[in-house]
Structure formats: structure tokens, C-alpha cells
Amino acid sequence: MFFRAIARPLLASWFIYGGIESVLTPERRAERAEPVVKPLLVEAGLEDVKVTDMVKVHGAATIAAASILALSRTPKTAGFALAGLAAVTVAAGRPFWREEDEEVRLRERERFMMNLSLFGATVLAATAGHGSKHKDRAKAKKIKAHDKALAAKVSKNEQKIARNQKALSKKRGK
């Protein structure tokens, strides 16, 4: 439980940082993604959409999903959203296969692999369930709450019966 509580914000921190960079300075990322993204925009009939705008939107969505993951509000949903956003980054962000210079290609391939690893981490965050101890505690808490509500209901009914018996005794005593 403790490790999961710190792991999500640690994973999210990289995505929040990258999202902020994408929103504030999208040009460098847009330049890298242009050869992959622009043909897709043209094919979809969205010639007027700028790749820099797409990078900014991607960055804002990444910040939102990563923040939700960091706060552990809906970690599975946030994890799946980040996985989808990371998949886009993997596919469009580091097209190392297009590089001519071997040194640049190697550097870009390493960053591609890092992005691929982060994609795997988001999938793990999205699919990681709670341990059996957590499930047992949650089940016990639910049973305890149910028993408490039932006891309160029984107590109310007992009080009603006692009042009715008292009223009946008074009627008979008259």
C-alpha cells in the first residue's frame, strides 16, 4: 500500500513535467512529430490544424491525466488515459528510423525505448489491482458498516416495541 501510494505520484511526475514542456514550448516536439503527424492530419482532412497545437493539446491532456494518477483519484482510468497518450508519444515522438546520422539515430532510439518503458509503466498502473489484504480490509469495513446500520435499525424497532408495550399497559391499567 505504501509503495503504491508513492509510486503513482513518482510515475506521474515525469508526465506532468513533459506535459508542461509541451504546453509552454511545443515547437521542438512538434518538429520531431511533424513527419508522422502531418500526413495523418492531411489524410483526416484537417490540413488547417497545426502540429504545435496538437502537441499543446496532448500536453494539457497529459497534465490532467497524470495529476489524477498522482492524486490516486481514479488511478485505473488515469492510467489508461496516460497509456493512450504515451502510445501517441511512442508512435510520433521519436521516429528514430527516419534519422540519417547514426549517432542521432542511436540517441533517438534510446529515447524511444524510454518512452516505450513509460508506456509499459502506465499500462501497469492502469491494471494493477489491490492486494488481498486491502480487499479483505475493505470487505470487513463494509460488513462492519452493514452490521452497525442493522443494529441501529434493530435498536429503533426495540424502542418502538417498548413504547407500544408501555402505551398498551397504560390503556389496560385504566
Structure notes:
This protein is mainly alpha-helical. 84% of the residues lie in helices and 0% in strands. The chain has helices at residues 2-24, 27-43, 51-70, 75-93, 102-127, 132-173. The N and C termini lie far apart (66 Å).
State the helix count. 6
From the alpha-carbon coordinates, what is the Rg to the nearest angstrom?
28 Å
Described by the principal axes of the CA atoms, the overall outline is elongated
Beta-strand content bin: under 5%
Order of helices and strands: HHHHHH
Distance between the termini: 66 Å
Largest sheet: none
Look at the helices and sheets and give the structural class. Answer: mainly alpha
Query: Mean pLDDT, as a whole number?
Result: 87
Number of strands: 0
